[in-house]
Amino acid sequence: MDVKSYNEKYLGEKKPTLCPRCGISTLDKTPARNSLSRHEEGIYICSACGTDEAIRDYSNDSLRKDQWVVARW
């Protein structure tokens, strides 16, 4: 399943939704309380992953989408 489909399918569910990037943290049901990925347009990720993306951008060491947990599901 690709990341965009994952967000569209699970973000509106009543059960907790895991972050598609790390697979550990849960996303808030209010999209504005999550982080938007810097690399995948319109994809919500957890705040910890948002911070990690910012740090990786600064050091030019971005995580490819195929390395995200959702890519392995």
TrEMBL record:
This is Restriction alleviation protein, Lar family. It comes from Enterococcus wangshanyuanii.
